[in-house]
Amino acid sequence: MPSNTKLSRMLDAGANLTVDGALATELEAHGCDLDDPLWSAKVLLEQPQLVKRVHRDYFRAGAAVAITASYQATPQGFARRGIGEEEALELVALSVRLADEARSEHLAENPGAGPLLIAGSVGPYGAYLADGSEYRGDYFLSRNEFMEFHRPRIAALVDAGADILACETLPSLPEAEALTALMEEFDVEGWLSFTLRDGGHISDGTPLARVAKLARAQPSVVAIGVNCVPLELVSPALGALGEATDTPLIAYPNSGEIYDAVTKKWRPAASGDTSGGAGNEQPASLAEGVALWRELGARLLGGCCRTTPEDIAAVAGLTGNP
After folding, report:
1. ∠54-45-29 over CA atoms, to 5°?
2. Going by C-beta distance under 8 Å and a sequence separation of 6 or more, which residues neighbour residue 82?
3. What does residue 96 show for φ and ψ, rounded to 5 degrees?
4. Which of 39, 105, 175, 197 has the fewest CB atoms within 10 Å, measured from its CB?
5. Which SS3 state, helix, strand or coil, does residue 214 take?
């Protein structure tokens, strides 16, 4: 059992937590140009205080969990910019410190707002490739290769004081298995959240029922679910997961659009397959889905790409965020 059990203790006590919303697209709304393989990690280099400002905006909106700007921050990615591993890992640690500073400043002004958690973002190998493959799952590494890729960043996040790990936008069962092994290695809690092929399968085609076994087998995995998926897929995915595990569920979908890695643009989602379990209703907005997703077992709810502090404020109001 991990030594830091803040999240599991909160969930065991019955808390329903609001996770923050989009970081990268919110940074773009503040004028950042993220047309870069480093994506939001680029801002850690150029405008770190803006990252803290966005974290504070989400805390003000009622988020109880801030996800760090380390999704695409890896030594391998920074090496493409001529940045050595030591400096790269310092930038990963900076992502935690910025979120922690935002938390401290928010709590100084709002003493009753806590407890607030910092989730260290661990994006998939596909995010490093920067070709959209985190939505396809069409890359293949051995378990050891996945672990070697993710280990330095996870070490930096844990050493910098992240409360939990957000292993997110995962398209691949083997990669998720490697990350659960690293959670155990570093004695840290976290969640696993996946991208989807349809309402019953993650992006590499693995059934969600099989993915749910990871949570049942590993105490460090305190929540499992989906992120950066269209609104219409959340209910069937939660239904499929809920039938296979009693682990708390998490969902933070995007605004309903699909990112094209070639054009670097967002486009409306086509009507997709929503098969895969109970609850096939399709809410028209993030806030509209909250009550339904809570009924399906989601204990942590937030937003991903193209969602805003205003969206998270609506979620926080509906979830009864502490």
Report:
1. 35
2. none
3. -75, -45
4. 105
5. helix
Instruction: For 80-106, give the DSSP string.
Output: TTT--HHHHHHHHHHHHHHHHHHHHHH
Which amino acid type is present at position 281? E
Q: What is the pLDDT of residues 26-63, one digit of tens each?
A: 888 877 766 766 666 778 888 899 999 999 999 999 99
Bridge partners of 198, per DSSP, are 201
SS3 179: helix
Euclidean distance between CA atoms 15 and 294, whole angstroms? 12
- pLDDT band, residue 19 (cuts 50/70/90): very high
Tell me the average pLDDT across 15-34. 85
Smallest CA-to-CA distance from 232 within 211, 193, 258 is with 258
The band of 268, judged by pLDDT with boundaries at 50, 70 and 90, is low
DSSP string, 279-321: -----SSHHHHHHHHHHTTEEEE---TT--HHHHHHHHHHHT-
User: What's the pLDDT score for residue 274?
Assistant: 40
**Cβ pair 58, 52 in contact under 8 A:** no
Q: How would you classify the pairing of strands 257-260 and 265-268?
A: antiparallel
Q: Give me 13's structure tokens.
A: 């006590």
DSSP code at position 165: E
Closest-CA residue to 168 (of 251, 60, 55): 251
Residue among 247, 251, 219 at smallest CA distance from 65: 251
CA distance 61 to 54: 11
- Amino acid, res. 319: T
pLDDT score for 319? 60
* Greater pLDDT, 2 or 9: 9
Retrieve residue 278's tokens.
């109970």
